[in-house]
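user: can you give me the structure for this one chain? tokens are fine.
assistant: on it. calling the predictor now.
[tool input]
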Amino acid sequence: MRDGVLEAGGYPVEFPVSSLGEVTMRPTAMLYRNLAAMDVEEALRAHPLDGAVLLMGCDKTTPALVIGAASVDLPTIGVSGGPQLRGIYRGQIIGSGTNIISMSEQLRAGEVTLEEFHAAEAGMNRSAGRCVTMGTASTAASLVEAMGLGLPQNAAIPATDARRNLLARMSGAWAGDLAQASLVSSTRFIELNAAVWSNNTVRVMARIISCATFDLAAATLSVGVVKRRAP
């Protein structure tokens, strides 16, 4: 990412914002998504920045970062961390969350042992990345791509795939170009209309199985904020 920004003539500066840990926050990370959006908005607004690259992952951080950045209206691009490698347990493909949830019920019923449950859990989470299943994290990443906030394949390339590094570098270069051209989010999205949004919705729904309307509404809200701020 940094190399791409430098290649475009920019100077990359990294800064942290609230991290919504899916498995560590109680009762759920979803309650803190608005807090993360506010953190992003104020960090971007308070510092002398010409553009932003949003490093996002799950179904909480992706809408939070997009909403926060959209409120500031800087040249912005989103980059997903990418999905995990698919899980494997005893030769069978297992997905993030779904299989472990069912196996937890089997554990309660005494149908599997604790050792078997831990083995399946280890087989499910065998690489870095967000949830690999076609759930809400994939929905949010797909919508970012469909909106034009991310480069093609941003939602699909696995986190550990070498193409992810190339995409990050290209995204950094694109962010630098957007900043130099002062192409803010409102300029890029002011022409969005109902037909365009309908097409994007179809593209997202065609890619995934679940209809994660919560994420769709959140990302739509971010563009709504942009359009209200546009001249």
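assistant: here you go. The chain has two domains: 2-82+131-229, 87-124. The longest strand covers residues 52-56.
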